[in-house]
Specification:
- Two copies of one chain form a homodimer.
- With 562 residues, chain A is an alpha/beta fold.
- Helix content of chain A is 27%, strand content 25%.
- In chain A, a hairpin with a 2-residue loop joins strand 21 and strand 22.
- The N and C termini of chain A lie far apart (75 Å).
């Protein structure tokens, strides 16, 4: 018997579900409602359109073979009834009816359903700041936003932009505008970029790279107001400073559009997003929901989380379609995996960060390890910094972050797979990853990082993290021995009288110069020479020798280096 | 109590083991013997030195911080006694002595050991071809080979090269010489490139790319002789043709250097390489062995295999060092993961191929899936072809191959991790991989491929592979409906009267033109539009409709396309 399927929201989850239902059950009637003019576009691509890397806005609306995914496409090719410019107003769960109105004309419509899919997504959060309603203050959530913003950027040539929010949309947008030679300032109200998503020292790498690319960052920013000039925004005033701002882009996070669902009596979860079960059903088994509207189970913490992402929304759509069409299907949850490009850097995370693990009182260890993304002699090889978080005792991998100019994402994806399969570090320490000089070192940096955890567990490596090392140095609690070459040291080093340079090559014959009973921290660029030095000194009877994990590459205070 | 550790072979495994033993047990005496002048160099980097991407030969000998890893380095920095130019002649297992001679002077030496590590590696196989001893016929196994070859290449400017062997060393070397504008011919005695390592249609992609890059390939090549000109090689004569050859490079595989071990009564495995247990011990518990000398357990087949790789050798070295120093450690085995760059293409494999699975009588299914490596609208996005091999019933992932201009290696590594952890496709079908437009499609091509297996299992997708499709077409057993646009079809298509073009967009209104009861194969570029068309026709009551898996992107007979 053919069913009537109604989908509200024609973006990732809704469009995917509708298309798959048509493939699975060609006899079903599928109707797709959306408020907007544009549907099924690649919202994640908008920063690249603004930056000019994606040339035409319509490129974000096209299939892989160049057809625009408009109403006609859904209708003709997919056989989906599509109604754009229609706002859903009310769900009558008893009658299985949705009331809607035409946004332009106000005309009412009513749609009966056997199964309803809620995929309205999320709306941008707007901090309550005076002037937020001024012309020139943008969000970047809908394609209409990108269209208006691109028109303004194009009309102005160059100018000054302030971006509010230092998470991935903000970071991608900052890169986009800077690549158009705009002067960009990023304001983040927390004490680091990517708050809640990356540990501070990994985020600090992006901040440093922003500095190299002339993007100014104010952290702990308290925005007092958006100031008006000639009837539109002209500047942003924070507690600390004032910035010129021909445009302001607010990228301060998303709030799920739960109003319709709430009014229909469907429960929200503890994150404030709509609650669904593993089959993506709401409280009402006839009503499914997915995408940026719902919360997910976090596979590492076991707790609900709200992480709106296009990749997750697509998977939701598939699970919903399967269940509606009689193929039992469950969405297992997410693990917070993300990646972001910022100029020449890639950065990403999967699982939990050290800070999240601490907040959740997980019994977790963490270590940072650096190494080359390719064979180090291969042209274009780059240093990557990895940070592993693992459960103490079991050594189950709980999270990993990666940052650098090289292929950080590959290592994130490998870690994501291991975490998904609940691997302990022991399970994967000899992982047979693809090796050739253009792709990795003989021992891939990820495997090298797993080995370091083994070295710590056996007491071989005694790591000190950057924060601890800095505190020890400043309190006079340790001597820092920089074992890089004299040339490397001269170029840049930690600027403190407690730091001495003693190159690794000279250490065997010069170790007598070092105090035997003082705490010593061995430092190098990546952490490997430091570790070798630590073992030499351990072997020579030095009592309290440690290695700066992650080396100077991951040292978070690059601005203080000499 | 300090131990005397003797290591024979100062390359990947031996050098790694020696260095780690010194770190673990600083009191042990570690002595490292090697026949060659050069030690601990990056052998895998030699093709890139020949091609000029690595500028100086010494770059292959340097640490990440620029110090040459010569005898002095091992001695001074690592505290390892090192003896180069010394050939081990005999192992006296009872007395725990190794006899050796100086290669230059013939002088004898004797070394006592408590633990012995055999890491002599492998020697290149030389096919018994007349003229193989001529000047100008090279191997590329030792740095001395690369040095001589580079000198000759540099002296000649341009010329003609014949490469014997179409596996990864041969392929990398072909790219290197072609990039120097040499005229390159590759001779492979099997019927495909990468024989035994890739399925034929994946290897065919590299062959086609070689064609695009003017590298000639003769498959099923039977070399009769290397012909002499002016006292050196001048041409290569095969049963089919004759090729100019200023130089010949033989890359026909490696044979483990087992002579010394055999003479000492240590057992070889069924592959002919030295047999070791999981702790990397030979029959004699005091004698460890690793690297290219030994065979490994294949984690998917459970059988011994001989896959000499630098990445594996490094892991062996670590396991050996740990066991010698009292940290119980096991090497779990390998899964045949490899990657290779060939011009703009990357190709790789992990686990078993479809051909291997068939040879081993595994109950396995296979499917090819194509998709973009990045968001398709992101500049530089590339199509990747993936081939998944999985156990029928359980859907355990057994293998994956990937090929294309994009990041194939990331997907190989993810699959390698899943295979290592014995994942079924169900375990990872909603895998939370890192997503951002510069890195992947919203649904990563790997996840999309897993979904396809699900679609096949539920009977939704009825795939036909390229070989079967070609046979059906040629026997008149099927109508092939190419559902790409008219423009795409005009540019290139399968050249057969049984192929018609009916664009997907027009299919809904034109499907009446197709025969309802004939076998139909829906074809597109990637396989997705073909699948959509198949479902449309299924839904309209067509009886026997199938999808060409992998689409035209993976069609292996590009030379026959119109």
């Amino acid at each position: 018997m053919s069913k009537r399927i109604l989908v509200i929201g024609a973006s990732a989850c809704g469009a995917k579900a509708a298309a798959r239902i048509r493939r699975l059950c060609p006899d079903d009637d599928v109707t797709l409602l959306d408020e907007s003019r544009y549907i099924s576009y690649a919202a994640c691509g908008m920063p690249y359109y603004l930056g000019g890397r994606v040339r035409a806005m319509d490129d974000l609306r096209k299939t892989t073979y160049g057809r625009i995914r408009d109403a006609a496409y859904f209708q003709e090719v997919k056989g989906i009834q599509i109604r754009t410019g229609l706002r859903a107003l009310h769900i009558d769960r008893t009658a299985r009816l949705v009331e809607a109105e035409d946004v332009a004309t106000g005309k009412s419509f009513s749609f009966a359903y056997d199964a309803l899919i809620l995929a309205m997504g999320a709306a941008p959060k707007t901090p309550p700041i005076p002037g937020a309603e001024l012309r020139g203050v943008y969000h970047l959530t809908r394609l209409e936003d990108a269209e208006a913003l691109a028109a303004e950027l194009g009309g102005r040539g160059r100018g000054s932009a302030v971006i509010v929010g230092g998470s991935f949309i903000g970071v991608e947008t900052a890169e986009a505008l800077a690549s158009r030679k705009w002067s960009v300032t990023m304001l983040e109200r927390e004490s680091q970029l990517f708050p809640g998503l990356l540990d501070f020292e990994i985020a600090a790498m992006i901040q440093e790279h922003f500095f190299e690319n002339n993007v100014a960052v104010e952290l702990n920013a308290e925005i007092l107001s958006f100031g008006e000039t000639d009837g539109r925004v002209g500047r942003v005033i924070t507690k600390k400073a004032q910035y010129d701002a021909d445009i302001v882009i607010i990228a301060a996070g998303l709030a799920p559009r739960t109003k319709l669902a709430q009014a229909a009596g469907l429960s929200l979860g503890e994150t404030g997003a709509l609650r669904v079960n593993a089959r993506m059903q709401t409280d009402d088994p006839a009503i499914y929901a997915g995408g940026d509207l719902v919360e997910n189970v976090h596979l590492v913490t076991g707790k609900p989380c709200y992480i709106p992402l296009g990749s997750t929304a697509n998977k939701h759509g598939r699970v919903i379609a399967d269940n509606i069409c009689g193929i039992p299907s469950e969405f297992p949850g997410v693990q917070g995996t993300f990646a972001c490009k910022a100029f020449d850097y890639s950065v990403g995370s999967t699982g939990v960060t050290e800070a999240q693990a601490a907040r959740l009182h997980l019994d977790a260890g963490a270590v940072s390890v650096c190494g080359f993304d390719k064979a180090h002699y291969y042209p274009g090889s780059q240093i990557l910094g990895l940070k592993l978080i693992y459960e103490n005792g079991t050594h189950r991998l709980l999270g990993m972050q990666a940052v650098g100019k090289g292929d950080a994402v590959r290592r994130i994806d490998v870690a994501a797979t291991a975490i998904r399969l609940r691997a302990s570090i022991r399970d994967i320490v000899s992982l047979d990853l693809a090796y050739a000089p253009p792709f990795s070192a003989a021992l891939d940096v990820f495997v090298a990082a797993l080995n370091v955890v083994g070295n710590i567990a056996t007491g071989l490596m005694k790591p000190v993290d950057a924060r601890e090392a800095k505190a020890l140095l400043e309190q006079g609690g340790a001597l820092m021995v920089d074992v890089r070459s004299a040339l490397e040291f001269e170029r840049t080093h930690i600027d403190h009288p407690g730091v001495v340079n003693l190159p690794l090559d000279e250490l065997p014959r010069r170790m007598g110069e070092l105090p035997k009973n003082r705490k010593i921290i061995c430092v190098c660029l990546l952490g490997l020479r430091g570790f070798t030095a630590q073992r030499m000194l351990d072997g020579a009877g030095f009592a309290d020798v440690h290695t700066l994990e992650g080396g100077l590459f991951l040292w978070p205070w690059k601005d203080e280096l000499a």
